[in-house]
Design a protein that fits this description.
The protein has 318 residues and is of the alpha/beta class. The chain has one domain: TIM Barrel (Alpha-Beta Barrel). Helix content is 36%, strand content 12%. It contains 10 helices and 10 strands. It has an 8-stranded parallel β-sheet. A two-stranded antiparallel ribbon has the order 2-3. α2 packs across α3 and α3 crosses α4. The radius of gyration is 19 Å and the shape is globular. The two termini are 34 Å apart. The model has no long low-confidence stretch (mean pLDDT 94). Bound molecules: NADP nicotinamide-adenine-dinucleotide phosphate. NADP nicotinamide-adenine-dinucleotide phosphate (NAP) binds next to α9. NADP nicotinamide-adenine-dinucleotide phosphate binds next to α9.
Amino acid sequence: MAQRVPVIGLGTYLVRRMNRCSGRLQLQYSTLAEATKVCAAVKYAIDVGYRHFDCAYLYGNEKEIGQANAAKISEGIVTREELFVTSKLWNTFHSRAKVAEGVAISLKRLSLDYLDLFLIHFPMGYKEGRSSHPGSYSDVDYLETWKALEDVVDSGKVRAIGISNFNVPQTKRILDHCRIRPLCNQIEVNVYLQNRALVDFCAKNHVAVVAYAPLGGEYAEVGSDLGSPLADPVVHETAQKYGKTPAQILIKFLLQQNLIAVPKSVTKSRIKQNFDVFDFTLEEPDMSCLRALDKGQMYRSTAMLNVCDHKYYPFHAE
Ligand SMILES: NC(=O)c1ccc[n+]([C@@H]2O[C@H](COP(=O)([O-])OP(=O)(O)OC[C@H]3O[C@@H](n4cnc5c(N)ncnc54)[C@H](OP(=O)(O)O)[C@@H]3O)[C@@H](O)[C@H]2O)c1
């Protein structure tokens, strides 16, 4: 059965903080205050029309997202069938024996009996255990992980499977060996990192692209000196021309290339604004000016530099 994916989803990763001393991105886990924020954000997003939620084991807030969804279902605002919920298998669950457990944990936290989409979060496997960032790797081949995910589809616990942060050769390897094709590759795409070769490869092979960090991300791990796409003068000029905000221009730029975008916000006005992009079309000369903002590999919000020696690290120059 063909899957329908709402083209805008709410991003739910709230927990990055810049370590001011090292200047490097430091991962922190969801605090209660942040989890409460995401619950309110999801409820509000449903009220203004979002149906697609981009979640992950790593984000540490699936329980609160599940509570928000359940509240809106019981209020009669939305049905489960209308929601499209994605989660992602973390790197410490890559072995065939651990995949089903990874799915079960996300389902339980989200209070769901199936996921619409489940992704391998990164091609790199980490050592199994309690820590999400154990500092050592497993050598599990992501093809083994994929085969186990195919079995999860057969079990009915997930409706579709996909990959995230896979580069061209890694995506091709999945396509060459799969029984069930990936619905999507979720990768970073924004005006500064347009990821053309990978986006074109996915399009040619009928793999949908879900663009994460569509506004440029909260912080840039690579290229922070370039500033943020949200502050780019060309984006601002375009916004003025269309009577829209810079964020709306950045999101529309992606949608007009047939990408799915998952902007994150916990601010009511921005949640609403990011969804309000269906009443205008960027003309080709403006699309062309926005395409010219591409910085190639010079900008990346999620670079995972701390694990760049992993054999499946995907972001070496392509
Ligand atoms: N697969 C992966 O490896 C991966 C990696 C990264 C992200 N993701 C997913 O993609 C989602 C989005 O990416 P992201 O969170 O990195 O970055 P993003 O959506 O590009 O940017 C989020 C930042 O923009 C701000 N913002 C949102 N709407 C705005 C608006 N209209 N005007 C001005 N600022 C606005 C947000 O602030 P406020 O929240 O304070 O409003 C937040 O600081 C994540 O939440 C996650 O679901 C996936």
